Amino acid sequence: MKNRSLSFWLFLTPTLVALALVVFIPMLEGLFYSFTDWDGLSFTKMVGFQNYITLLHDKAFVNAFWFTVAFVIVTVIALNVIGLGLALLVTQKFKGSSFLRTVFFMPNMIGGLILGFIWQFILTQGFSALGSVLHAGWLENWLTTENTGFWGLVIVTVWQMSGYIMIIYIAYLQNIPQEIIEAAEIDGASTWQRFTKITFPMIAPAFTVCMFLTLSNGFKIYDQNLSLTGGGPYNSTQMLAMDIVNTAYNSSNFSLAEAKAIVFFIIVAAISLIQVFYNRKREVDL
Question: For the whole model, what pTM was predicted?
Answer without folding.
Answer: 0.87
